[in-house]
Amino acid sequence: MAVHETTPIKERILSVLVENRAGVLSHVIGLFAARGFNIDSLAVGETEDPTMSRITLVARVDEKTLEQLKKQLNKLIDVIKVQDLGDEGYIDRELMLVKFRTTPELKKALESIMKTYKVHVVEENAKITTIECTEARENRKKLFETLKGHDILEIAQTGAVALSKKEPK
Predict the structure, then answer these.
(1) Domain residues for 35?
(2) How does pLDDT run across 10-38, given as a tens digit for each residue?
(3) Does 96 lie in the same domain as 47?
(4) Residue 1 covered by a domain
(5) Which of 18, 39, 43, 114 falls between 20 and 30 A from 138, CA-CA?
(6) CA 120 – CA 83 distance, rounded (Å)
(7) What pLDDT does residue 18 have?
(8) Domain end position, chosen among 87, 117, 150
(9) The CATH number of the domain where 137 resides is what?
(10) Where are the alpha helices (DSSP H) in 13-168?
(11) Whole-angstrom Cα distance, residue 50 to residue 67?
């Protein structure tokens, strides 16, 4: 039996610039699905050029698999550019909306949370309080753990969006 050297599995953020056409997203996602990889986060949106969209996805992969995925993504006709943002500095954000039952304890806890995280109350009444958080991915994860101790009624999160800190070529 052959012994293969494995590389550690790490969370990676890929930014994939694509033609803004129907079906492109399914082709990109199909590469991951065909290999049995889960995508942890996915966000897609039009860029400054309406003929292009940016797909930002986060997945846990090893280095060898990451290189294969990047090569295969680059072979897709509608893919313009693939960036592994882990190789360069990047700025990322995720949006999270959380609905709670309004209580005096929640109001007190939110005062402290709002000093630590980019959180603000978007709607509040006698029964329900809804907050919005726009944070870097790692901070959003920490905030989520902090909020679990409160009476969460509903939660919705976007996928990560990210841009390289480098000047575009």
Answers:
(1) 10-87
(2) 889 999 999 999 999 999 999 888 888 88
(3) no
(4) no
(5) 18
(6) 32
(7) 97
(8) 87
(9) 3.30.70.1150
(10) 24-34, 63-75, 104-116, 137-147
(11) 29
What is the spatial distance between Cα 137 and Cα 160, in angstroms, rounded to a whole number?
Answer: 7
Q: What is the pTM of this model?
A: 0.83
User: Same domain, yes or no, for 23 and 79?
Assistant: yes
Contacts of residue 157, defined as CB under 8 A and 6 or more positions apart, other chains included, come to: 94, 95, 96, 97, 140
Q: How many C-beta neighbours within 10 Å does residue 129 have?
A: 22
Q: For residue 2, what pLDDT is reported?
A: 47
52 and 82 fall within a common domain = yes
* DSSP-derived secondary structure letter, 87: G
Between 63-75 and 24-34, two packed helices, what is the crossing angle to 10 degrees?
150
What stretches of the chain show up as alpha helix (H) in DSSP?
Answer: 24-34, 63-75, 104-116, 137-147
d(CA 70, CA 75): 9
- 103 & 157 share domain: yes
Q: What is the identity of the amino acid at 121?
A: V
In the predicted model, what is the mean pLDDT of residues 158-163?
Answer: 92
Domain harbouring 46, CATH code: 3.30.70.260
Determine the average pLDDT of the residues in 60-81: 90
State the average pLDDT over residues 132-145: 90
Q: Residues 6 or more apart from 148 whose CB is under 8 A from it? A: none
